Amino acid sequence: MASSLYTRRIWINRLGIVMSMFAMAFGLASLAWILWTLLSNGLAALSVDFFTQDTPAPGSAGGGLANAIVGSLMMLGVTTLVSTPIGILAGIFLAEYGDRSRFAQVTRFLTDVMLSAPSIVIGLFVYAIAVATMGGFSGWAGSAALSLIAIPVVVRTTENMLKLVPTALREAAFSLGAPRWKVSLAITLRAVKAGVVTGVLLAIARVTGETAPLLFTALSNQFMSVDMSEPMGNLPVVIYQFAMSPYEDWQQLAWGGALLIAMMVLAINIGTRLLFSRSDLKN
């Protein structure tokens, strides 16, 4: 009886391993297929004009996505500056001070709601409170919508990382007379800095390709503009518009923009992992 049960467990374990390997292979194959499709269709669009010229008019030859690239970088920069400190500080509060706080429970609930909320709903919300009341689309409204998507990701990642810090590390710092705020910022946060930075990058990667919120907030701009109070060109909206157009040159630029976003997200993630792996080896 014992031997048959042992044999059954072995076969169940083997079946689980095989299914896990199959799922991993399927995911890697899907990723490779997506990357190959982007590379095969998008490399032809990458040129000097792609990075230096604005989006072309319908039916005109040439052109690039310089205005959309600049607009996306500006809005992503503002989003990062807004969501990073707010998300990290909120995550510290939930992990270090919110064990029995009713306010912390409400904050966690709202964070989970915002994590599961469709991006188009957040875009409509910002449209109602910012665009419709202020009388126009703008880069600031687009950054606000992207920040509302990024902040919950940073909050939950920071909280989960801080909860992994051993209690003995906090107690050792308290025993030396360090105040709680200093322990939170200088000890526990520093111990999980790699995970927190990964959460910030995950949030940036999520909002980089968001299209629906920007359609209702920043809209787009065919010309180069660095005025955040005006409609601003951005890669997701331009890719959506050009991919749906009947013009082959626009469709080619859309493939190039999609490839640029994918490569940027991959470069950020791979570069950060390499950086922190080297720093861990030195320590």
CATH hierarchy, class of the largest domain: Mainly Alpha
Order of helices and strands: HHHHHHHHHHHH
CATH homologous superfamily title of the largest domain: MetI-like
Number of domains: 2
Query: Per DSSP, what share of the residues sits in E-state strands of 2 or more residues?
Result: under 5%
If you average the pLDDT, what whole number results?
Answer: 88
Number of DSSP helical runs:
12
End-to-end distance, in Å? 51 Å
Summary, kept brief:
The chain has 283 residues and is mainly α. It has twelve helices and no strands.
Question: Can you walk through the features of this model?
Answer:
78% of the residues lie in helices and 0% in strands. With 283 residues, the chain is mainly α. Helix 1 packs across helix 12, helix 4 (102-116) crosses helix 6 and helix 11 (235-243) runs antiparallel to helix 12. The protein is globular and about 70 Å long.
Any chance you could write out the topology, listing elements then pairs?
Layout: H1 2-42, H2 48-52, H3 66-97, H4 102-116, H5 119-134, H6 139-163, H7 167-175, H8 180-191, H9 193-208, H10 212-216, H11 235-243, H12 248-282
Features:
12 helices; 283 residues; mainly alpha; MetI-like fold
